[in-house]
């Protein structure tokens, strides 16, 4: 009988379940407390952060079945929905029939109802989605991906599937993962003693993509407005709370956009995503907000955030972003108290410095008290493809800075002038013969165009309030770690 009634998701029951309805629910046991006459089971099926309380008439349940209903076990139950007699929930299911689908031995199941550290949960990433925190993060991550696709679709953008395997290094930094089918125990060499890539699968040196940008530009110069959304890879040996070896990037590229158009789009997109989260992830965000407030209590006063998670999200949704040139930002930072009193870890002494997260957060959280877009950066600290300004010193680049996280979006107007692009590539020792296809777009019908990149996990960090980027992706890839 248990399997003959169609399952109803717990989210639907809690939202609009009617008292007196006979329902079938399936999920995983969070907690069970039992007395001689009654047992209460908190059931969760992942559709919501909230549990459904099942009320079991203990004497009517087979003793062996009752014993198998433990934290982590999966069950199916049929019962009648009633208004709850106790505090903590509006409705509960009075169970008539119950079946254990899968047991979870309490002696072995690692997610018993107690507080677990983030470090411990990373070691059991295959089970951590069953916790409240990571269930919430997965649901928020889904909503943010949906919001992105919806935003760009409404604006008439085309979604481009850029390649994951590529022979180019878009950033020119050399931090790529090599891809090969060669026998690493007997690597073939050519006459010069170098690796003979002619014997490899693609007959040339190949790597995992670091960005879909260059291919995105090619498509934008044909259909005007595109965006990519996919995995990217950096072989950067960074063991920090802000870096991953595998992460997801959102990269729109737009023909006929200048730098101002680019900044307008980035601000509109970020506000759309934040507003979508506030509207569609209320329960999860309230839980994550409480979690963060509790976490902040254990920090020294000077390390606590001035705003709660929900306040930070409202802060972005309700404020126009401040736009300021890099040059003006440097002057503000040079005159700032943290710089003059040597409180910054990286002191700002002269124009040309590469801004760090501490500087970005000062501008956002202390000086302007709103999100900030910096533009017109020194060309020497930016990539070869960024459009050179008439001053000969700066490029038409922009970064969007958020509270608590610093840079969240980076982009630029692209250099559309062939001679300028070739000269810059020469200055940065980027071989033109490897990027002839890219240069062709500047030879044939070139136009002003712009684009930017949003690190999706950075955005999820901001929306969820998680302090470590390893906790907003299901299976983090970091130096020395490629589990699951």
TrEMBL record:
* Domain Aminoacyl-transfer RNA synthetases class-II family profile stretches: 138-474
Which GO terms label this protein's molecular function in UniProt?
Answer: asparagine-tRNA ligase activity; ATP binding; nucleic acid binding
Task: Return the EC number.
Answer: 6.1.1.22
Q: Which UniProt keywords apply?
A: Aminoacyl-tRNA synthetase, ATP-binding, Cytoplasm, Ligase, Nucleotide-binding, Protein biosynthesis
Q: Name one GO biological process term.
A: asparaginyl-tRNA aminoacylation
Catalytic activity field: tRNA(Asn) + L-asparagine + ATP = L-asparaginyl-tRNA(Asn) + AMP + diphosphate + H(+)
Q: Name one GO cellular component term.
A: cytoplasm
What does the UniProt entry say about where the protein is found?
A: Cytoplasm
Q: Which family does it belong to?
A: Belongs to the class-II aminoacyl-tRNA synthetase family.
Q: How does it assemble?
A: Homodimer.
Alphabetical list of HAMAP family matching this protein: Asn_tRNA_synth
- Its name, as the record gives it, is Asparagine--tRNA ligase
Lineage of the source organism? Bacteria, Pseudomonadati, Bacteroidota, Cytophagia, Cytophagales
What gene name does this entry carry? asnS
């Amino acid at each position: 009988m248990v399997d003959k009634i169609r399952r109803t998701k717990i989210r639907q029951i809690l939202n609009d379940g009617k008292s007196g309805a006979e329902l079938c629910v399936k999920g995983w046991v969070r907690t069970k407390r039992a007395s001689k006459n009654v047992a209460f089971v908190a059931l969760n099926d992942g559709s919501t952060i909230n549990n459904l309380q099942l009320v079991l008439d203990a004497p009517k349940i087979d003793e062996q079945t009752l014993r198998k209903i433990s934290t982590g076990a999966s069950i199916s139950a049929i019962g009648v929905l009633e208004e709850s007699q106790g505090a903590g929930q509006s409705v509960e299911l009075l169970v008539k029939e119950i079946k254990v689908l899968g047991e979870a031995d309490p002696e072995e199941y690692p997610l018993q109802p107690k507080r677990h550290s983030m470090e411990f949960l990373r070691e059991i990433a295959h089970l951590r989605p069953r916790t409240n925190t990571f269930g919430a993060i997965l649901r928020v991550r889904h909503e943010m991906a949906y919001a992105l696709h919806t935003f760009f679709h409404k604006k008439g953008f085309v979604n481009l599937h850029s390649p994951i395997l590529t022979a180019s290094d878009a950033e020119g930094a050399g931090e790529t993962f090599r891809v090969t089918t060669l026998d690493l125990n007997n690597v073939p060499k050519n006459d010069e003693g170098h690796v003979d890539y002619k014997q490899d699968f693609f007959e040339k040196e190949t790597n995992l993509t670091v960005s879909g940008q260059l291919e995105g530009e090619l498509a934008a110069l044909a259909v005007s407005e595109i965006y990519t959304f996919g995995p990217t890879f950096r072989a950067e040996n960074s063991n920090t709370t802000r870096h991953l070896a595998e992460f997801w990037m959102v990269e729109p590229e737009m023909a006929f956009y200048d730098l101002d158009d680019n900044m307008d789009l980035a601000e509109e997109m970020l506000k759309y995503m934040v507003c979508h989260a506030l509207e569609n992830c209320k329960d999860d965000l309230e839980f994550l907000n409480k979690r963060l407030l509790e976490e902040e209590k254990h920090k020294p006063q000077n390390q606590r955030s001035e705003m709660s998670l929900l306040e930070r999200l409202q802060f972005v949704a309700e404020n126009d972003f401040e736009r300021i040139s890099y040059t003006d930002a440097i002057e503000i930072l040079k005159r700032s108290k943290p710089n003059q009193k040597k409180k910054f870890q990286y002191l700002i002494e002269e124009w040309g410095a590469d801004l760090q997260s501490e500087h970005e957060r000062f501008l956002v959280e202390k000086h302007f008290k709103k999100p900030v877009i910096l533009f017109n950066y020194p060309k020497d600290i930016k990539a070869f493809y960024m459009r050179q300004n008439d001053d000969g010193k700066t490029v038409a680049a922009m970064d969007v800075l958020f509270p608590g996280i610093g840079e969240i979006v980076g982009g630029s107007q692209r250099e559309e002038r062939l001679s300028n692009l070739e000269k810059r590539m020469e200055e940065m020792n980027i071989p033109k013969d490897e990027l002839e296809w890219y240069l062709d777009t500047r030879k044939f019908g070139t136009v002003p165009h712009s684009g930017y990149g949003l690190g999706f996990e950075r955005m999820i960090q901001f929306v969820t309030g998680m302090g470590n980027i390893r906790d907003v992706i299901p299976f983090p890839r970091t130096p020395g770690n490629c589990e699951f």
